[in-house]
Design goal:
Blueprint: H1 9-16, H2 20-27, H3 35-48, H4 54-61, E1 66-71, H5 77-92, E2 96-101, H6 106-118, E3 123-126, H7 139-143, E4 148-151, E5 161-165, H8 167-180, E6 186-191, H9 198-212, E7 222-225, H10 230-241, E8 249-252, H11 255-267, E9 277-279, E10 296-297, H12 301-317, E11 327-330, E12 334-335
Parallel strand pairs: 1-2, 1-3, 3-4, 4-5, 5-11, 6-7, 6-8, 8-9
Antiparallel strand pairs: 10-12
């Protein structure tokens, strides 16, 4: 049985007895080719089942009209919304999107970055893996004038585009809200990646809010998680509730962690928010499913995705590849629900 093979412009040229250059130009509606020839070539191409190889064309021109997206995972609602914003914006301009997951592994991130570079992506958008400390594997994009945007989890010292929220203000707002609800011993569940400024800035906002209201800063109430998972959140809160003087408020780095906190409190017979008020981060769908509904900080994921893609597209059109780098700050808000509403 003969194996099916892809139809090429050489096959079309042979059938129509025309030069391959003529076929190529006709398929692109080139003005030097007559309308009659263009129609004949396109009709024949359709009959023969010809599909243009956009990747090969991109490799020849060193442009694939593809944006690479490198993120920790697609399972988190925040990152799913981020991808949606990127795709909507990219597709409107005729660009495709390749998505790769690092699973918060530094080594996987290095490998994926290399793969995206080899694929000749036109630009790359990245949210760093939790393990990442060294970002030198992204220098290859800068050296080749491929626009690079870090989003959400961004490095402190890498001179390129960044799209972030004001994490300091968000951490301050969340903590201040708990203080205004009467909490005096507020725990903070954060993450261990101090290389990037995401969690360190939220923690700084948390500490400054405590200082402003003359509340003590207790190291035992600041727990650094290894992973952003429900299990890690629940485990951390079990430790907090075992303290001789447990917290009466918890500010978690993400909604899934905050849900773990609520479940841990319930298991011990604690009332939320009467005994412990809890606030999360991201406004994930689960925040409105859990009982009580979870207070949270809004995180404009889709807007961040759109902003990231717009920066890529704008830079691709610009002749000034070394223009000043942009930093985009997007605002956040406190969404007050039952888990923290004491007053």
């Amino acid at each position: 049985m003969e194996e099916n093979k892809d139809v090429t412009i050489y096959d079309i040229a042979e059938k129509l007895k025309l030069a391959t250059s003529t076929i190529s130009r006709a398929l692109k509606d080139h003005p030097t080719i007559s309308a009659k020839t263009i129609k004949k070539v396109k009709d024949t191409a359709e009959e023969m089942g010809y599909v243009p190889n956009t990747l090969a064309a991109g490799l020849r021109g060193n442009k694939t009209k593809t944006i690479g997206v490198l993120i920790p995972t697609v399972t988190q609602p925040f990152l799913s919304s981020l991808i949606s914003g990127i795709e909507i914006t990219a597709q409107k301009s005729g660009y495709n999107v390749i998505i790769m997951q690092s699973h918060d592994s530094y080594l996987d991130e290095v490998s994926m970055a290399k793969s995206l570079y080899s694929s000749r992506v036109s630009g790359i958008i990245c949210s760093l893996a939790m393990e990442t400390r060294d970002t030198s594997h992204f220098q290859q994009f800068v050296n080749s004038n491929i626009p690079l945007v870090f989003v959400d989890r961004v490095p402190k010292n890498f001179n390129t585009f960044r799209v972030i929220i004001d994490n300091y203000a968000a951490g301050y707002k969340a903590t201040k809200h708990l203080i205004e609800q009467g909490c005096t011993r507020i725990a903070h569940l954060t993450a261990g990646s101090e290389f990037g400024n995401l969690y360190s800035e939220r923690k700084r906002g948390y500490i400054d809010a405590l200082k402003e209201f003359n509340l003590p800063i207790n190291d035992e109430l600041i727990i650094i998680l290894k992973k952003v998972t429900y299990e890690e959140g629940k485990k951390a809160c079990d430790l907090l509730f075992d303290l001789p003087n447990p917290p009466d408020g918890i500010f978690a780095l993400g909604d899934i962690i905050a849900v773990g906190a609520i479940q841990s409190a319930k298991k011990r017979g604690l009332m939320v928010p009467q005994d412990v008020a809890i606030i999360g981060f991201n406004n994930d769908p689960i925040s409105q499913i859990i009982d009580p509904n979870l207070s949270t900080i809004t995180h404009p994921a889709s807007k961040m995705g759109k902003a990231s893609a717009e920066i890529i597209l704008k830079n691709l059109k610009s002749l000034k590849k070394n223009e000043i780098k942009e930093i985009t700050f997007l605002n956040t808000e406190v969404l007050v629900r039952e888990s923290s509403k004491r007053k």
